[in-house]
Write a structure and sequence with these properties.
With 133 residues, this protein is mostly helical. The protein has four helices and two strands; from the N terminus they run αββααα. It is globular. Pfam families: UQ_con.
Length: 133
């Protein structure tokens, strides 16, 4: 049940995903740091900003320059000043604050917006599975 308070609703998501052990692979292209690495979860994930195959979709991992779709400013996209640490922090932030305005997983975004109880159950299942090994 939603409270109508975005901060409390956000905390409910955090507590739902907290405690999970989610594995991911960060792959660096030959032209790094000019172009960003890619990140893919190898653990099961249910999140608006994670494609069904595990690829992470956040602005700082998008190629530098203007967004051909017009969703992001060039300043929000990859620049060589980003580090592995800033990428990991951005992913942690993404996990606690889904962006459902340009989702990678449309079904997860719909549930995040309209059926948070169902969404939380799926995230909780992913957390449990991640704890099992």
């Amino acid at each position: 049940m939603e409270t109508g308070d975005p901060q409390k609703d956000k905390q409910k998501y955090i507590s739902t995903s907290e405690g999970g052990f989610f594995n991911a692979i960060m792959s660096f292209p030959p032209n790094y740091p000019v172009h960003p690495p890619s990140v893919r979860f190898t653990s099961e994930m249910w999140h608006p900003n994670v494609y069904p195959d595990g690829r992470v979709c956040i602005s700082i991992l998008h190629a530098p320059g203007d967004d051909p779709n017009g969703y992001e400013l060039a300043s929000e996209r990859w620049t060589p000043v980003h580090t592995v640490e800033s990428i990991v922090l951005s992913i942690i932030s993404m996990l606690s604050s889904p962006n459902d305005e340009s989702p990678a997983n449309i079904e997860a975004a719909k549930e995040w917006r309209d059926r948070k109880d169902v969404f939380r159950k799926k995230v909780s299942r992913c957390v449990r599975r991640s704890q099992e090994g």
